[in-house]
Amino acid sequence: MKGTVQRRVVRPKRPSYAPFLILLGSIVALIAVLASFFLAFLFSDLSRPNVNTFALEVDTMFQKAKDFPVLGDSAAVAVAFSQTTGNEQYETKRVKVETLVPKSPAASDSYFENAIFIGDSISVGLRAYGVLPTQNVLAEQSVNILNLLNGDPVYRTTGSEKKPVLQAIDERIPNPDKIYILIGANGIPGLSNEAHIKYYSQFIDQLKQKYPDAMIFVESVTPITATSKYIRDSFTTEKINDFNDKLYAMAQEKGLYYLNVQEVLMDDTGHLIADYDAGDGMHLKSNGHKAMYEYYLTHTVGPDGYTDKIVE
Amino acid sequence: MRKFLAGMMCLVLLLASAACSSNTEAKNPNLSDVIGEIRAAVEFPEMAEIKVADLPMYGYDLAPEDVAEMQFITAGSGFTADEVVLIKLNDESKAEEVKKMAETRRDGIAETAQNYTPDEMEKLTTAVVGVKGPYVYYAATNDNAKAKEILTNAF
Fold first, then answer.
1. Would you say B107 and B113 are in contact if contact means Cβ atoms under 8 Å apart?
2. Distance of alpha carbon B3 from its chain centroid, rounded?
3. A245 to chain B nearest CA, in Å?
4. Of B14, B30, B108, Cβ closest to residue A51
5. Which member of A32, A36, A141 has the closest CB to residue B78?
6. Quick one: pLDDT at residue B16?
């Protein structure tokens, strides 16, 4: 009909929930991210005590508590302690050492401060197990007397380059006052004992020429087990013992000291004590090296050539 | 509705980026735990622990201040090639150089082992050596495959 007025009906606008949902979703996301970081922190290493620092502190305390040779466990420390503090229980006699070094009350580890120990793989454990400071030990696999005599590069001092023995000694302990030699196991299979000792004697001459004031201690080759994997016709307990006899004779002739370290590693049958065997019937576990070290400590010679021999 | 969907998409993208960022962060393993895991999983002979100060004696030309953290164990008896070395360097740029030191040491041991202890050659020819960030690792063990698995997961 004409004249009808149309009125617009304005309905109230329905509120939009989208901004609210976006805001809520962002808050939830933020909380989720924060929660994941928090959970990661809870299970991370940051929340754990620093095991390495703790272990170092314990080790440091243990070392400081000991005023005796570093042997690495309380049992070995107890042995050294009883020997150094139990001196009064021994009767001793002051004797001049000719060749075979007799047993004496244990010296302190400072006795070896300026000493160098030369050896093959059997001596590796002396430094690896911390029985002696690394600085005082030259030891590598497969070293034999000809390597030493001929100046072959066989010992690492620092880095990967190997050096001849005399150069290696200079780099480690210039002018050593004591030189310990444990060599022979690698040469015995390939050499006659007579030839072996001849080369050994020539090497001693080189050492004496370079270090005229050093005390030289030659050590008996260590024993093997009856079932060692290295046993063959050319490498037996009998041949090792014969070599040691000839080594002793050479030491007498040249005025050296002889350490019969074999005796502390040997059982009643003349073989390596099974408990010291590292697995191949010849190389030693840490307890074997500790036994050797105790032997060194209790078989010493003063600068005057005398020692307080224990009278048993 | 469109705004609601846009908001949900933002939320999903936000959560996804958070997850991805956590996967690309460098791991920071405790080296003592890593070596403990290897020792638990692999058979070793009696091992000796080597100190940081003695690293040069073992072919690693590093000063104590170069090393943030280290675990170094080696067969102390002198006749087997078992060895695990884990080093965290303070200067990540030296990592490749230190890896070469590990390889040189391995090759030197192998040269001797060839004639002296040929049974040990397997450990050396399949030895694990690697670099991840500031970490350098080396393992020559009775089970190098297992050692490699643990080291790969750790770093």
1. no
2. 51
3. 26
4. B30
5. A141
6. 56
